Amino acid sequence: MTDTAVATTSFVEKLEAARRASVTLATAKADLKNAALQAIAVAVVDNTARILEANELDLANGRDNGLSTGLQDRLTLTDARLVSLADAVNEIVALTDPVGQVVRGSTLPNGVGLTQVRVPFGVIGTIYEARPNVTIDIAALALKSGNAVVLRGGSAAQNTNRVLVDVIQDALASVGLPVEAVQTIDEFGRDGAKQLMQARGLVDVLIPRGSADLINTVVQESKVPVIETGAGVVHVYLDESADEAMAVEIVHNAKVQRPSVCNALETLLVNASSAPRLLPPVLARLRASGVTIHADERTAALFADTVAATEDDWSTEYMSLDLAVRVVDDLDAAMDHIRAYSTHHTESIITNDVANAERFLSEVDSAVVMVNASTRFTDGGEFGFGAEVGISTQKLHARGPMGLGELTSTKWVVRGSGQVRG
Amino acid sequence: MTDTAVATTSFVEKLEAARRASVTLATAKADLKNAALQAIAVAVVDNTARILEANELDLANGRDNGLSTGLQDRLTLTDARLVSLADAVNEIVALTDPVGQVVRGSTLPNGVGLTQVRVPFGVIGTIYEARPNVTIDIAALALKSGNAVVLRGGSAAQNTNRVLVDVIQDALASVGLPVEAVQTIDEFGRDGAKQLMQARGLVDVLIPRGSADLINTVVQESKVPVIETGAGVVHVYLDESADEAMAVEIVHNAKVQRPSVCNALETLLVNASSAPRLLPPVLARLRASGVTIHADERTAALFADTVAATEDDWSTEYMSLDLAVRVVDDLDAAMDHIRAYSTHHTESIITNDVANAERFLSEVDSAVVMVNASTRFTDGGEFGFGAEVGISTQKLHARGPMGLGELTSTKWVVRGSGQVRG
Fold first, then answer.
1. Res. B389 pLDDT band, cuts 50 70 90
2. Which HAMAP family does the entry mention (chains A, B) (predicted)?
3. Other Cβ atoms closer than 10 A to B132
4. A and B: number of Cβ contacts within 8 A
5. How far apart are CA A283 and CA A276, in angstroms?
6. Structural contact between residues A196 and A206, judged by C-beta atoms closer than 8 angstroms
7. N or C: which end of chain A has fewer CB within 10 A?
8. For A70-74, A143-147, B154-158, which range has the lowest pLDDT when averaged over its residues?
């Protein structure tokens, strides 16, 4: 099917079918949802040949259309990648079902019982790029949390996604769940994404996954409430009292261990009085791992062969072995810098001063604030949530690493025995 | 000042000042915020003459401009109303500060300590109608929860609001808090509301208060995340096994006790087999209190002198002594009706059947679901939250009655001793 094919089911019909499916899913027991997830994991591996054939078609189109090698790599599925996708689905089986969890409760003075419980959103929409792994990942997370999901993937992956959704729907049917619990709207092309963003009332929440541009477009245009996962211009501040060995290890880990992810360090701030002591060993260790240092003047005076930092460096999420480094006068100057340039993802202070640590934790307005720890810990898996839905940098609903619980809403259950209000 | 006056401070400058004030407020201790609230309560009463003079000017303009008597009533302040507004502010003093409350926490296997704590949003924007009580109310709630607030009230109340904000700002200054914690943008007229809805990044969350039209406009147009407080087309379903006395009392309380509020009953659904037993006493009691019955055919066959219900009645929030009544075949038909017409605010089942009660609580997708209780209990005060921020009918962030905690976000605080990720 191509963008110009005639859709046999209308867009609104698909969303209405998702709503009906969501009613069934909302009360489906964890056993049944887990059986569906296990069936999906098996089916993804069993259908390897069919999936890879569709993927090869997308890759061939991509090469013809000049898709960059980076994007081609993200689009590519292999036997091994499908096995690891299936493994990830099986890991979601092992997680606790968030639906029905009691958040809080009380008995009112008149005897009325009050319980706030987690319930699914209903229908989740998601808009993402040509990464077929997201198709499996988000479908599994939505299913486990009792939500129907409507998928709009990048058009460069549409053949792969169509087969993946077929495979998922067959698995759903095999356990008796409605196939409309997982649907693609790729056949509506770009217009589908636009319509999804307008579908207030039919879609409960929209989760964009991908580049900052994609997320920003959805945030700006959507009339459906959005859960935003944002970019990370992440800071570490080396305070005057920072331990040298700790500073070296944490900065190295935060920058080098996996530079392409959002919790990796992008800007290092160093207290002026400790810079002569700390910067040479910290930067030498980074350089040994191939990191390019974008240095302000005071840093360049303490460490040779750096690149001069420009104003742009302070707001750049490199996602590579590059690091911006700036010497600041004191803690206040460090927090001023963070306030001006941070994306409010994760910031860490390395210090042995209790008062400075507490000020930093209290005053820095980011999703995750740390003392004496690597910023790489900002991660759903590391936090013990099991699954990685994404890292929210917005303040509404979810902030920081999102687990399955963040894919739910709540409802209040009130149990009376005839009480009326006086 | 009128709509055409030249603004001395630009719109963006005001929002930036609010942001700076929010940084101070975010770490202000409860003692200081409470002192500010107490100063506001005193100042509102002390400045009665000045406030009523401005209010009389707005009322005179309203009469000249043909403002309806209902809107004039909502606009009117009196000595007594100011005292009760001051009392309400003092009640907020007594509430627990939500900022710093620990939501959850754990120690990771590597010894890293993890705590999720409540923090203010930062800057709250609010758009409301010509009800000056909202000015005091929302300013006090925002202050207690550590947020700066930017107010856009209805232009018909702009003289009153300007004086109220002056009074609040003087009270803030008297305890040493920044006056920009509470600002009005009324001087920018309608354009101010539009700009506020575009101010993503400067304003963290927007809370519209008022009519369904106002809320819908904000929800549709805002690029800033919105907390929506919605209309209540509230249902009670009388099941086959409903106790007659309980049905009579709960339906009467839900409809009659305060018909003008969102948790009041609007549509009564009755199981067909119990309708001959229940409808005559239930409707007789309502009629004795002056309720007009908008009846479907099956209801009209059981109770004389009703008005014929039209399709529109099923989705009308009367907010008056009117009630739509429909006989349905069974629980499934009742839930189908609710699914089709509810605004997902509050629905209650009256029953003595455990299985039906549990199905209703589980399957009805509303902010509050009840068994054997009056829908009038859906209220922040009744739920023990102390303050009434509003009742959210959306699923993101807050659902149901909102207390001070719902005016906060969270942040993760991570305390390590040099841990890096392996």
1. confident
2. ProA (MF_00412)
3. 28
4. 206
5. 11
6. yes
7. C
8. A70-74
Could you say which of A219, A372, A418 has the minimum Cβ distance to residue B416? A372
Residue in B closest to A346 by C-alpha: B412
Q: Can you tell me the distance from the alpha carbon of B294 to that of B282, in angstroms, rounded to the nearest whole number?
A: 14
CB hemisphere CA count around B56 (13 angstroms): 8
d(CA B84, CA B44): 10
Cβ–Cβ below 8 Å for A396 and B205: yes
Count of domains for chain A: 2
Are residues B244 and B330 part of one domain?
A: yes
Residues ≥6 apart with Cβ < 8 Å to B148: B18, B19, B21, B22, B25, B122, B123, B124, B142, B180, B181, B182, B183
Is B413 near chain A, with CB under 8 Å? yes
Beta carbons of A400 and B414 less than 8 Å apart: no
| Beta carbons of A396 and B225 less than 8 Å apart | yes
Q: If you measure CA to CA, which chain A residue comes closest to B414?
A: A370
With a pLDDT cut of 90, the percent of chain B lying above it is 87
Contact between chains at A384 and B415 (C-beta distance less than 8 A)? no
Inter-chain touch A370–B416, beta carbons under 8 Å: yes
Q: Which residue out of A198, A239, A414, A419 would a mutagenesis test of the B interface target, given it has the greatest number of B Cβ atoms within 10 Å?
A: A414
Q: Are residues B281 and B303 in the same domain?
A: yes
Burial of A201 (0-12, 13-18, 19+ CB in 10 A): exposed
One domain for residues B300 and B342: yes
Q: Is the pLDDT of residue B230 over 90?
A: no
CATH (domain of A310): 3.40.309.10
Asked if residue A399 is part of any domain, the answer here is no
Among A377, A379, A392, which would you mutate to test the B interface (most chain B Cβ atoms within 10 Å of its Cβ)? A377
Specify whether A116 is located in the same domain as A257. Answer: no
Q: Indicate whether A257 and A346 sit together in one domain.
A: yes
Do B247 and B213 reside in the same domain of the chain? no
A389 in a structural domain: no
Q: Do B309 and B160 belong to one domain?
A: no
Specify the range with the lowest mean pLDDT, choosing from A96-110, A209-223, A393-407, B296-310: A209-223
Evaluate whether A235 touches A338 at the Cβ level (below 8 Å). Answer: yes
- The string of pLDDT tens digits covering residues A116-162 is 999 999 999 999 998 899 999 999 999 999 999 999 999 999 999 99
What backbone phi and psi angles, to 5 degrees, belong to B184? -105, 145
DSSP assignment of A308-329, as one string?
A: EP-GGGGG----SSEEEEEEES
Q: Flag whether residue B105 sits within 8 Å of chain A, measured between CB atoms.
A: no
Please tell me the distance from the alpha carbon of residue B360 to that of residue B229, in angstroms, as a whole number: 23
- The alpha-carbon gap from B186 to the nearest alpha carbon of chain A, in Å, equals 25
Residue B209 falls inside a structural domain: yes
Write out chain A residues lying below 8 Å of B254, CB-based.
420
CA distance B229 to B400: 9
In a domain, B171, yes or no: yes
